[in-house]
Amino acid sequence: MGSNPVTWLGTPPFPKAAHAALGDSQLRANLRKATGTIRAKRAEAVAELSDWERLRRAGEAIKDDVLSRLDTYLERLERAVTERGGVVHWARDAAEANDTVLRLTREAGADEVVKVKSMATQEIGLNEALAAGGVHAIETDLAELIVQLGHDRPSHILVPAIHRNRAEIRDIFRRQMPSAPPWLSDKPVALTEAARRHLRRKFLSAKVAISGANFAVADTGSIVVVESEGNGRMCLTLPRTLITVMGLEKIVPTWRDLEVFLQLLPRSSTAERMNPYTSVWTGVTPGDGPQRFHLVLLDNGRTNALADPVGRQALRCIRCSACLNVCPVYERTGGQAYGSVYPGPIGAILAPQLVGDMHDAQAASLPYASSLCGACYEVCPVRINIPEVLVHLRAQATAAKGSRGPEALGMAAAGWVFADPKRYEAAQRAGSLARFLARDGWITRLPFPGSRWTASRDVPAPPAESFRMWWRRTRG
Amino acid sequence: MALFATCLTDTFYPDTARAVVRLLERLGCTVDFPLGQTCCGQMHFNTGYREQAKPLAQRYAGVFAGYHAVVVPSGSCAGMVREFHPGLVGASPATTMTYELTEFLVDVLGVTDVGAYFPHRVTYHPTCHSLRMLGVGDRPLTLLRAVRGLDLVELPFAETCCGFGGTFAVKNAETSTAMLADKMRCVLDTGAEVVTAGDNSCLMHIGGGLSRVRAGVRPVHLAEILASTEEEPWAAIR
């Protein structure tokens, strides 16, 4: 793992990482089916609301307000949580957050914790850090459990095991789940039953639960987790100690603001009008639920993103995954090619900003993992202009690479040609000689870097006379 | 009014630019092609060379100052000019008066039947930037439906990107090709002889793939279809 575990050490830059994924027929089929289904369902769920566009704008405005006065809201949240009996911890980076959680777990006398599905804890590599400290973390979200038992990596924000089909899941359970019978079938009902039996024991024995947060209400100090399975609810209510790790930007100012997000999120995410379980807790309630509550507020590159006037809109993200599901690149490469817990279009703009170093070749390749088709922006419930941020980050990537690389020199040469119509026309005349390479109007092979195109596509032969030459000859 | 041919069409597809001129003149416009024009700077801008896009945006504003309208036979270049030139060099009359071809025909000229004749089976690919950046909507399809003799077949998953994406096609060539393969399958499923679009860049990509597998489907820019008439069929526009 690198200095910031948001990207996985050893993952090659995107084009190379995509190579293996593109050739994996099982992965391609799983993703095509899964993204195709959820895409259609989301469109239906969204079409039901006549004020969807206004909801999006409201979500955008609330998040922008939070981001513009984050310091105020964070202190308000800290005060509210503390008043209600919770303890707030601040973590600059992954290491600080992991150390805090490990210390708190040890103080609670636990060597095993149950986990609610959480992106923040994935981002900081908490499970690995806990394991290094002798604490075993058990993922209780079904898809996270599949990933964990398979010693795999997540490939989707909402459905981390989206790259697995049920036959593969059955094999993982048979191998890794002691309570799973050898005759376990690949029927969904049998798989969930096996997971249920496996997890129930853990819920009843765990002293500590760890969660993330979808929202935190600054006014009241209330934390909100939305989920589908109810396993999160088990974690949030049964163990005596609850530790929540939350990105700084997850704040909403008031309880009323939840109205907007609890409509935007489920419809965008699971294509539901309402998610099955919405858990809300405020500090500690004597005699009910966890009696110790810790809130770890995580920066880990967020203030770096916040300082960028264009890039900061990525912090509006509510982790719905709609952009992944509509992305034509994601559909073909899957999430692991992005080399980060945040895959897809949002990952391509969030991960490089959290890493904060465009000299990192893998991070710098992510903003280029897009054809800029704009489908992500169209579905984003908080109107993050992902193509805009992609192009913005590309400019940072080229600046980090400097002006002496082959691409930069090529771009400078093209700029020089386009700067003067005479040079441009001379280049057209020179380039049109390539027509002698053509057969039937098409060129099938070009030297590098044109070979990257002609590996799979022909190029039209340039005509002897460009349009401007024709215009001058006939009209000029 | 002026024609901004775009560097790609000027260099590789003069037939498309000639078709725009013929079409607009048939509809009563006086078309000029200022020879100072080169490129809108989209390749530089989208690849992360923002500074080098600036002089090109500046050139555009100067070259097209003073025209009532600038017509562009490309959704992505028109999008570049209208959406991003103001951020690079400030808004200018040239950027606000820039129209993608079908926008100009439908919104400015108020024409949906341009009197074209094109007796072929055609499928239409809505290019991403015309669709999502400019929002041209069903203007191209409305124009195509009015073309006599044309058998318009709906393209399955039409709104999915073809995988071109400018330098994406070479920087992520394999992913781009995987996207192209699916687009080609959809085109072939229609049984069309011609695939059309409002952007020669995307057509170069789709057509380049179809040519490689000898699919026998021809990429033709929308302007060439609309310029075609019974008296002067499109193949004769040379």
TrEMBL record, chain A:
Q: Superkingdom of the source? A: Bacteria
PROSITE patterns listed in its UniProt record: 4FE4S_FER_1, 4FE4S_FER_2
Q: Name one GO molecular function term.
A: metal ion binding
UniProt keywords (A-Z) are: 4Fe-4S, Electron transport, Iron, Iron-sulfur, Metal-binding, Repeat, Transport
Q: Which Gene3D superfamilies match?
A: Alpha-helical ferredoxin, NagB/RpiA/CoA transferase-like
Q: What is this protein called?
A: Iron-sulfur cluster-binding protein
Sorted alphabetically, which NCBIfam families does this protein's record hold? LutB/LldF family L-lactate oxidation iron-sulfur protein (TIGR00273)
Alphabetical GO biological process terms: lactate metabolic process
* Keyword Iron applies: yes
Its source organism is: Gandjariella thermophila
Task: Pinpoint the 4Fe-4S ferredoxin-type domain residues.
Answer: 307-337
> Pfam families from the xrefs?
Fer4_8, LUD_dom, LutB_C
